[in-house]
Design brief:
Strand order of the largest sheet: 1-2
Distance between the termini: 64 Å
Radius of gyration: 22 Å
CATH topology: Ammonium transporter fold
Order of helices and strands: HHEEHHEEEEHHHHHHHHHHHH
Shape: globular
Number of domains: 1
Structural class: mainly alpha
Number of helices: 16
């Protein structure tokens, strides 16, 4: 709009051309618009992307149950977050452990509240989508054998007592933040936390009937590949959105996210091709997710060459963890939540301590940029998250067992399939 036109415009149009103003702080409309889009992208990752990704890998008789658990996870996370989750994670710090209860039911937050350069409501929504997907990631370790009612109870307890404290430690001003741990978009908070929780839950539940003896084919690799593509698409909001602004760091995070996913998919494909003689679509899709997981904690701190290394290692390590380590140790991580999210999340957190460069974020430097101390800090953050998630999840499981009279489905229900046993539905007919 030309300057002359502005002078002759009505006053209300002049106000519309100015940045939004509230409570003595200025809302950046560009940042706000981007964060609304980023939040919508991350929301889509759970009830659409992850549901398809996990659902396609589950057996046909449990496909809808996997969808239902994933869908319910997002709904539970959404409700808990606005009632008490947000304040536990981002309320006033108490001893570096947990946030205060000042914002129960989002008390004290209004349409005039601002977080950085965006409305606080948008920040609340953005963080809510992280809580929902972190919980849903755990499902990958337990499909085919956990009661739906037990999952509901577990979900409420786990978000409250496991996810919210860890989110506060890293992003809410807790002890990890004070220590200087780097986690741009959720390497520790999301992936290590969920991966370790999934492993503990899988170990407590025990192996599926026939595991290691009966072939357990995925219901639809096509659905899984489509889910992986939607996850990849949504991950741009996940990582680039974590800058909370439409700026150069967000652009860099966008770039390295895509690069890491692409080269990880190729690395997994190559490793599988060499070992088994065939490059599977499931392997390519899993590799892309492994690369996305690994770049998540580093996205706002590393440059393009580092993202190539991070993704390359993630593809190989991810393949090795699900095809070799799991088989040797003998645990039944149904859809490899720990093998992909836990293991690649650990690699990504360590890689952040290696490759963080002040050229991207001035306050962040890793080992290769003259700050070896950062690698030690990253290691402590990994250890702290894994230990707390493992111990806390085990306690949550024991409480859930009491409330729901056990957490594993009956043998007959497991044989019949959870779609029919719990939901009275079928995904499709098998002839």
């Amino acid at each position: 709009m030309k300057f002359k036109s502005l002078i002759s415009a009505p006053p209300f149009l002049l106000l519309m051309c100015l940045p939004a103003y509230a409570g003595g702080e200025t809302i950046n409309t560009g940042d706000t618009a981007w964060m609304i889009v980023a939040t919508a992208l991350v929301m889509m990752m759970t009830p659409a992307g992850l549901a398809l990704f996990y659902g396609g890998m589950s057996r046909y008789k449990n496909l809808l149950n996997t969808f239902a658990m994933t869908f319910a996870s997002y709904c539970i996370g959404s409700v808990i977050w606005v009632i008490w989750g947000y304040t536990l994670a981002f309320g006033p710090d108490h001893a570096g452990i947990i946030g205060g209860l000042n914002h129960l039911f989002l008390n004290g937050i209004s349409i005039h509240s601002i977080y950085g350069s965006i409305p606080t409501y948008i920040f609340v929504m953005f963080q809510m989508t992280f809580a929902g997907i972190t919980l849903a990631l755990v499902i990958g370790s337990v499909v085919d054998r956990m009661k739906f009612s037990s999952w509901i109870v577990f979900s409420v307890l786990w978000i409250t007592f496991i996810y919210c404290p860890v989110a506060h430690w890293v992003w809410g001003g807790g002890w990890m933040a004070k220590m200087g741990a780097l986690d741009f978009a959720g390497g520790t908070v999301v992936h290590i936390n969920a991966g370790v929780a999934g492993l503990v839950l899988a170990l407590v539940l025990g192996k599926r009937k026939g595991y290691g003896k009966t072939a357990m084919f995925p219901s639809s690799v096509t659905l899984t590949a489509l889910g992986a593509a939607l996850l990849w698409f949504g991950w741009f909001g996940f990582n680039a959105g974590s800058e909370l602004a439409a700026d150069g760091v967000a652009a860099s995070a966008f770039l390295v996210t895509n690069t890491s996913a692409a080269i990880a998919a190729l690395a997994w494909m190559a490793a599988e091709w060499i070992v088994s003689g065939k490059p599977t679509l499931l392997g390519i899709a899993s590799g892309a997710v492994a690369g996305l997981v690994a770049i998540t904690p580093a996205a706002g701190f590393v440059n393009l060459p580092a993202s190539l290394i991070i993704g390359l290692v993630a593809g190989v390590v991810g393949f090795y963890s699900v095809s070799v380590i799991k088989n040797r140790l003998g645990y039944d991580d149904s859809l490899d939540a720990f093998g992909v999210h836990g293991v690649c999340g650990i690699w990504g957190a360590l890689a952040t301590g290696l490759f963080a460069t002040p050229a991207i974020t001035q306050s962040a430097s890793g080992l290769f940029y003259g700050n070896p101390k950062q690698l030690g800090i990253q290691f402590l953050s990994i250890l702290g998250t894994a230990a707390f998630s493992a111990a806390g999840t085990f306690i949550v499981i024991q409480v859930t067992k009491i409330v729901t009279n056990g957490i594993r489905v009956d043998p007959d229900e497991e044989t019949e399939g959870l779609d029919q046993a719990f939901h009275g539905e079928r995904a499709f007919e098998i002839t």
